[in-house]
Structures are given as C-alpha cells and as structure tokens.
Amino acid sequence: MLTRDSKEKKDQVQIFSIDQVVPKNHILRDIGRAIDFSFIYDLVKDKYCLDNGRPSIDPVLLIKIPFIQYLFGIRSMRQTMREIEVNVAYRWFLGLDFYDEVPHFTTFGKNYTRRFQGTDLFEKIFEHILEQCFEKGYVSPELQFIDSTHVKASANRHKLQKVKVQRATRTYQKELIKEINKDREDHDKKDLKPPKDGGEKIVEKTVSTTDPESGLFHKGEHKDVFAYSVQTSCDKNGWILGFEVYPGNENDSVTFSDFFKKIESLEPKTIVMDAGYKTPYIAKTLLDKGILPILPYTRPKGVRGQINRSEYTYDPHNDSYICPENQTLEYKTTNREGHREYKSNPKICKNCSRLEECTKSKNSTKIITRHIWQNYIEACEAIRYTQDGKALYKLRKETIERIFGTAKESHGFRYTTMIGAEKMRYKAALTYACLNLKKLSKMMRKDGKLGGEPSKNRGFILDRVQNILLNYLNEQTLYQAYALKRVCLISGT
Asked: pLDDT-derived band of residue 371, with 50, 70 and 90 as boundaries?
C-alpha cells in the first residue's frame, strides 16, 4: 500500500517537554546525571560581578558549549553553534528551550580572551572530573602508562624562519656535574673546570611565524609539520591522570622531568613507557624513588659492518671492558656528558686480525663509553626480561595508545585550529575531561549508580496535563451541546 507524506503533521500543535524528545539512552543524559556542573560557578566567581554591569551568559552554559564540541568531535565553534540550533539533545544539555537564542559562535572566544585567558580554569575542570572518578573508586594510579602524541598546529609549514637561540640546559645538569666530579675523584682525576663560555651554547632553530610556540616535527615518512606534543599519563583501566603540552620538536626524555612533577603526587609504583624515555637519568629518577620502570628493548646504535657493542663485556670488578679478542680496554677519563671512556692499547690492537671491524681510528685505538648511571639502565633491562615486565608492556596498546586513537578519531584531537600553547592546553584539558566523563558515565550506568530516569516522572506529569486539557475540552463540548438542547426545548423548535 502506497503511503503519502502527511503535510498536516508539520503544522500540528502538540504539548510535550523537551525532555521527552531526547532519547532515553543518549550519552548526554548519562553525563548530566554522572556529574553536577554547578561546581563551575565556584571556579569562575571571581571573574564576574554580581551587582554591576550587563547580565552575562551563564558560565556553565559557556563551558558546556566547547564541551559538546570536543565530546562529539565537531571541527569548529561555528559548526558547533549550528548543531546546537537544530539538535534537541544539545539544547536539553545546555538548558535551552526551543525559543532560546543560541549564542553567537564568537561568544566563547571573546569570553576566553576577556575572562579566562591566563587562568587554569580548564585544568581545574579536568581535575574536578578526575576527583569524581577517584571518589567512585574506579581509578588505580599505582600502575601508570606514559606517552606523548603530536597534535598538528594551526601553522603553515612554509611560513618559517631560522633563529639562533640559547640551548636549554638540562634540568639535572647540576646533579650530573656533581656525580661526574665524584666519579673523577674516585679514579684520582681532577674536577672538571667550568666551561669557558659558561656552558651556554647557541643553536639554530626553525620557528613558525604563525605559531612560534609550536615546534617543527618530523617522524618517519611523514612530511615536516608544526605540532604540539601532549604528554599524557593513564592508569591500567584507561583513566587519564595528567597531561602537559610542549613544542612538537622537544624529545619526550627532555620533557619527562617537568611532567613527572605533575603525576608524582599520585604515588605511582610502576610506570610503563616506550623507548623514547629510556635514558639513564629517567631510569635513575624512578628507581631512586622506589618506582619500577618498564622500558622496552632498544636497537643497539652502531656503525654498519662494525663489531656490535654487546660483544664487549664489562668487568665491574676491574672497571674495564673485554673485547671479543680478550683484550682489555682500561678506564681513562669521565667526560662532561657523564660518560666514562675506556680505551684499548694501540700497540696490541694494530696487529689484531679484526681491527677493521673494531675501529676506524687512525691510531688503532678503540674507545667505548659507559654512562655513570648505566647500572640503572641495566637494572631496567633485568626488569624487562621478567614475565611481569613483558605482560605489563603489552598493555600499552590497550591503554595509552587506545586513548590517543580514540581522541584523534572521535574527538578532534588530530589537529588544532587555535594558536598558542595556552589554547592547546585548554583544548587538551577539555578533550581529556570529555574522555574521562564519558567513561565515568558508562561505568556508573553499568554499575547502576545513575539512578532512575527523571524523564518518566516528567512525562507522567505532562500526560496528566494533556488528559486534563482533553477532559476540559470534552466537558466544554458537552456543556455547549446541553445548552443548545435547552434553548431548542424552550423555544419549541
């Protein structure tokens, strides 16, 4: 049977609430019951005047708008406002009815510039949601997974310039120099003299003219792009515990020291990281604090066609190396980089049959370096070979890597349209807050902690109103018919 479109329904007047139109299983319903957004009022109360000026937009509404953008991966604020205009669920979440005007897409940007810029508002929102996850008993920070992902910056890779800047000193430089001098004293060597230039080296750096705070990033076969590096930590269940934003050209091992300060308060007992974090300083830092580092295998770095470094055996008793031909490489000095140098005897090596495979030195001398903190790396290698170490490292793809994949694929975290590290930080804060909150609502739904459906009572009330109105109309119709009958009887018609 052919069915035709009923045009009458388009102009039909009905009585219903906006709550009835939103699907019962919509994610925004669960999020609205999982957390009370009224905590935002306390965070922004010092940014508003209560008794002066024009009435402002509700700050909760103001924060919920970009929250919708990142939760559903909408590409821009302009498009977000368009979606809110026609999406009933979005209006319900924001507390707007059918007749409320949707704010202009520049509203949030202007409020950010005039109110929220230079504040840690969005990080506090992320922390508050994380606290709720802790209170519900879902988070286990004892085991953490740390890694970084790159987010493409809003910067043309062709608009750049070369600038000379001072190379940043390592955060642990003072500690390293102290250890170097102590090691030299143990070997009857004099302390290192301060460098003539004060240790300040000038290096050339490629900087974007559009977004100078980003960094030129290159990986594998990908082309060079300006990007930000977002270093992230999560637990074994995929709850995001902390993050920090850095230029895309900074190595993970360099930024780890600063990032570790943010997660140290969570008291991790085991941290799983990839090969980018496998440095002597990171291994020493974690082991000295009683934290078990899980680090992967790294391919030995050497010259093709030369004897692999692993074939040289370290003798801790004599503090020397033994080459594959059973010759000794003795300690000579400890350099400024913290490496002990072990040299062979050129008189013996020049007659060796494997000299060409061993070294390209003109004076027939083989030099092997060993970091003064190398024993910490060897301890990490021993941990890596254990069954627990192997099992925990495999969880990376199910935890931190999964978070990055979900954020980029579904929440618009592959690139940013905003300029500046501060705006990138607030984008990361809201994106990760969305991921945690979405996970929290699902877990509470699974455990039956969200409570009943509030829409049922409201629907019941509206049904009662509809019935009352219908009864009233029916009664009015019967009354009019009775009155007409009385008039007819009196008049005799």
From this structure: very high
Q: Which letter, b or e, does each residue of 347-365 get, where b requires 16 or more Cβ atoms within 10 Å of its Cβ?
A: eebeebeeeeebbeeeebe
Indicate the length of the chain as a whole number.
Answer: 493
Q: Which amino acid is at 101?
A: E
The number of angstroms, rounded, from the C-alpha of 378 to the middle of its chain's C-alpha atoms is 30
Helices and strands, number each (H, E), in the chain: 18, 13
Confidence of residue 263 (pLDDT cuts 50, 70, 90): very high
Contacts of residue 203, defined as CB under 8 A and 6 or more positions apart, other chains included, come to 164, 165, 166, 167
**Residues 416-456: tens digit of each pLDDT:** 999 999 999 999 999 999 999 999 999 988 888 776 554 44
In eight-state DSSP terms, residue 156 is -
Q: How many CB atoms lie within 10 A of CB 60?
A: 18
Instruction: Assign residue 198 a region (left: φ > 0; alpha: ψ between -120 and 50; beta: otherwise).
Output: left
CA 452 to chain centre: 33
The residue type at 204: E
Q: Where are the alpha helices (DSSP H) in 7-114?
A: 18-21, 27-34, 39-44, 59-71, 77-86, 88-94, 107-111
Whether residue 126 is predicted with pLDDT greater than 90 in this model: the reply is yes
Domain ranges of the chain: 13-119, 141-296+377-420, 309-373
Looking at the predicted structure, is the pLDDT value of residue 143 above 90? yes
